[in-house]
Amino acid sequence: MKRVIVGGISHETSTFTPVATTLQSFHERFLLRGNEILEVLRVTNTPIGGYIDGAAKHGFELIPTLFAEAHTSGPTPRPVFDSLVNELLERIEAAGAVDGVLLELHGSMCAGDLDSPDGVPDAEGMILEGIRRIVGPDVPILAELDIHSNVTPKMVGMADVLLGRESYPEIDMAERARDCTDVLARIWNEGLRPTMALHQIPMVWGMNQVTAHSPMREAISELHRIEAQPNVVCASIATCYFLADVPDMGASVYVVTDNDRQEAQRYADELGKWCYERRAEWHFHMPTTREALELAQSAGRYPVIFADMRDNTGGGSPGDSTGMLQAFVEAGLRDACVLNITDPESVKQCHAAGEGATLTLDVGGKSSPLQGEPIRMTTRVVGLSNGKFHYDGPMFAGLESDLGPSAHIEQDGIHVLLTTLREQPFCTAFARSLKLNTRQMRYIGVKSSAHFRAGFESWAGSIHVVSEPSVHDLGNLPYMRLNRRLYPFHS
Length: 491
Prior knowledge:
Largest sheet: 8 strands, mixed
Mean pLDDT: 97
């Protein structure tokens, strides 16, 4: 029976957020070792869940090593990063002879002080290089990447196959992983010789990238046209993670063919050019919540969802921006809610007061002055929890999450979910655990760019992506390390 390593280190790194990454950050999300990886991630819509499915389909044995993942935050300190990488490599080396490697990586991780020689702007490249050194040139290494990757030449050079997710919201995590296992089986059974090429597009892809909608839908159709060519094994579009000030930040296309690097490069260049020619279409104007409220109330399609993408914790923001909540309060909305505000201090006060209590809180605005001022609220504590729940929407279905002690508060018809740990709302499961039925709300504010759509869009009356003050205001981010000119930063 074929023996295949499975594991990875996954982190999306913002170089602009004040939210620090620590070893505890990985414990709060995933720090799994050995068989624990298979036990926790089996039957889940995750990359490793997909690898488990693929192993059963193709009849190979998975050798679980280390899987570490933290929510998006600042660069991982070098000692923490080195410790995780060294453990992963040691476990791979201890596995002995293997027939393949399947990894879950993000594609935009960096570590250490990026202004020092010890900084690691391309963590995935370093991880892949270390694994290649152990397994040698002939063992295939395959990795699934996030759609928001900053793909580097080193990553492409060290891996046999990189396969990016092609849905946003990213509901195809397990599916893409199963595709990786299909390619691995072809390498063994058909003598497939994957050859990969990269085209780095000179642009930052804006947030107009929901794949069920135009114009992103057409980009995925074009991707599928390339994938349908006779000798193409797989192809991917990386829309980039623009909150990373690293040399290779930017969108890209990467294509894998069967033993024809020139052909792979030709297709990558073709698709990259197609994307760049439409560069203006990937950007759109975002109103403030106040402006969007006027539009929504004129249209009258409820419930209306306001998505504050600047304070998206999934992008590394602190999650306690108060602009949206302030707009809701000033407008005197009723049957309204905000999901979620990260505010451990207020959560502690709610738990101390108890469910049903009325108390005055200064909500949000505690992590940075750029996140706005705290909002003074006289609230009723509707629900309390330890923050544990299971996702039941399309993203992460079946997976348990833990947001730490949490609270549901309400003032004059405005409901707010407060959490200790950061997380964007992928579905309504967490709200329900705190006695909030979001489907009964007319106005729903979410701290999310697009992943909320997986669990909310099917029943929303209308959706408005809004911009409120945050540490991640794209127009004011001081990029210093880029290695090329990028649209729209440079005309």
